[in-house]
Amino acid sequence: MLFPIFAQRNQAIIPMKKIIVPLDFTAVSETAVNHAQNLAIHTSSEVYLLHVIAKESGREDAEKRVEAYREMASADYPGVVFHGMVRTGSIFDDIGNVASEIQANLIVMGTHGMRGMQFLVGSNALRIVSSSPIPIIIVQERRIRAEGYDDIVVPLDLHKETKQKLNLVLRMAKHFDSRVHLMSPRESDEFLQNKLDRNMAYARQFFEEHGVEYTTTISDAESGSDFADALIRFAASQETDLITIMNLQKNSLVNMIGGNYTQRIITNEAQIPVLLVNPMDTGNFDLFGWPAP
């Protein structure tokens, strides 16, 4: 049984927040732990190392291995509370259930980029994101800076969920004192271009009103894979720490990450972490218990 844990912050008692890291003892899961511990420090969170086994007969050995890893992580990252969890089943099926069970706020998971695309685009992996009640940060081998996510790139598009994404980015930018880099494609259709221009104007006003430093860039590339490539090149040139995108195909397991645009961003060669979230029923989405702007 998991009991609520409380911490002292700003002279107020608040519940500790929770970050899940799927643990398979590979180098990329260690990178995920590295990101999670930094996020935990910045957000007064605890880290739950989740290891899933296929058969119950392997539980004893798995629990010993997870406990040894938990002790090592605690020694490597003092000041962060780590918990070990072992479940029998499939990580792809169970992670959403675990997130709901412990009321987690974030999942940080590793992938091997293009070498590990089956891990991301297979039907099981699609269920991780589409069924997750919380955001997921996907990392490769690039470790997090000590100061966290200083620079966040946000692609703007024509979807209504863009405003919801800005709310999420605002919360992160306020917490990490981040710079936000807004980038939109260029559309040949005048009507669509006007809509993109309005979205950019809205985003500029939004961050100005909340005192967040930002830049704006209009790409020469149009929407789709060409824009994804341009976005990645821009993000790399800015030494970006995080790209934030939304899953706009939540109910489509075939198209959600299989689309070339999202696939290219998630597996970018610059190994920039990607924050991927599902659109919520309400725009008042809360990543780490921060108040709405």
List keywords for this structure.
single chain, 293 residues, alpha/beta, Rossmann fold, 2 domains, 10-stranded mixed sheet, two-stranded antiparallel sheet, 9 helices, 39% helix, elongated, disordered N terminus
How would you sum up this structure, described in words?
The protein has about 290 residues and is of the alpha/beta class. It has 2 domains: about 5-140, Rossmann fold; about 150-270, 3-Layer(aba) Sandwich (Rossmann fold), CATH 3.40.50.620. Helix content is about 40%, strand content about 20%. It contains 9 helices and 12 strands. The protein has helices at about 25-45, 60-75, 90-100, 115-120, 125-130, 160-175, 190-210, 225-235, 260-265; strands spanning about 5-10, 10-15, 15-20, 45-55, 80-90, 105-110, 135-140, 150-155, 180-185, 215-220, 240-245, 275. A 10-stranded mixed sheet has the order 5-4-3-6-7-12-11-8-9-10, sandwiched between helices. It has a two-stranded antiparallel ribbon with strand order 1-2. Strand 3 (about 15-20), helix 1 (about 25-45) and strand 4 form a beta-alpha-beta unit. Helix 3 runs parallel beside helix 5 (about 125-130), helix 6 packs parallel to helix 7 and helix 8 packs parallel to helix 9. The longest helix has 20 residues, at about 190-210. The chain is elongated. The two termini are about 35 Å apart.
